[in-house]
Amino acid sequence: MFFANTPEPPYYACIFTSQRSDKDAASYNPTAEFMDELAAQQDGYLGVESVRDQNGLGITVSYWKSLEDIKLWKENAAHKKAQEKGMKDWYSSYTTRICKVERDYTSK
Q1: At what angle do helices 67-75 and 77-85 cross, to 10 degrees?
Q2: DSSP for 22-73?
Q3: Which of 19, 31, 58, 83 has a beta carbon 3.0–4.6 Å from 52's, enabling a disulfide?
Q4: Rounded alpha-carbon distances, angstroms, from residue 39 to 23, 46, 49, 76
Q5: 23-62 pLDDT tens trace
């Protein structure tokens, strides 16, 4: 497992919790990989951490410098297309939470 290399706080976390459906599984992974690559090219992107269990429950946390950076990512045309596909086919349910990280610490 790899952890995102985030800077000293404050910064922002976008937490996407989802339950995968059984629809259109073949297109999910390539699109998710493309979204990871595309997000990494966006201004303010700091990193991502993502897991999914065998029952389809997933949590992806992306880290950003500002709320404006998160807003611009949400409005990205390719990301919007993937969001629409997700709502229609890939997820039976999901929740997005935006948080300000004020403090962090880690073990090495």
Answers
A1: 70
A2: STTHHHHHHHHHHHHHHHHTSTTEEEEEEEE-TTSEEEEEEEES-HHHHHHH
A3: 58
A4: 24, 9, 12, 9
A5: 988 999 999 999 999 999 999 999 999 999 999 999 999 9
